[in-house]
Design goal:
Structural class: alpha+beta
Strand content: 25-35%
Number of strands: 7
Oligomer: single chain
Number of helices: 5
Helix content: 25-40%
Order of helices and strands: EHHEEHEHEHEE
Distance between the termini: 38 Å
Strand order of the largest sheet: 1-2-3-4-5-7-6
Length: 166
């Protein structure tokens, strides 16, 4: 499995992966993907036998990102790297791919002092909540997107002298 920077050739596979996990994510079409990538501080893909089997997109603080979750963090933290989405194809889960992607994204977030993301509480995503807790993420808020979607807003401080909102 090769971890690499994302390229346009992988977009169709990324869009298919996102669609397969849209219940846990937000919808993504080619236009939205291109816009997110124009804002992205880091975008990574994992390939297996020439196929994208996982990807992650992260946006730094200070961008015009219109995601309500991103804006929630932007009103509370001056510096952060926001993990917009991470997807691992179902047959490739539980093989350490998400860990590799998170290691790389957290490394990219070092200069921002914290990594932030959101995980569904409704519909529930218990595996993701447990994964984040094991990595040291803590819930700093919740955001309701309507009667069928509520997310936990999570933060991991990457420096010991960084505390709460700045």
């Amino acid at each position: 499995m090769e971890l690499r920077d994302l390229t346009r050739t992988g977009w169709p596979q990324m869009l298919a992966l996102n669609l397969a996990s849209v219940r846990e994510l937000s919808p993504l079409d080619e236009q939205r993907l291109e816009w997110i990538l124009s804002l992205a501080h880091r975008s990574l893909a994992v390939e297996h036998e020439g196929e994208v089997v996982a990807f992650a997109l992260a946006i730094a603080s200070g961008t015009p990102c219109d995601s309500p979750n991103y804006r929630w963090f932007a009103t509370r933290f001056e510096r952060f790297l926001y993990l917009d989405r991470i997807v691992v194809a179902a047959p490739f889960r539980r093989r350490g791919i998400a860990t590799r992607l998170y290691d790389a994204m957290e490394s990219a977030a070092d200069s921002f002092d914290r990594m932030v993301c959101d995980v569904n509480l409704l519909p529930p995503n218990q595996a993701s909540l447990a994964f984040h807790a094991a990595r040291g993420y803590r819930e700093v808020g919740r955001f309701t997107h309507g009667p069928e979607k509520v997310v936990a807003l999570l933060s991991k401080e990457l420096r010991s002298d960084v505390g709460g909102p700045v």
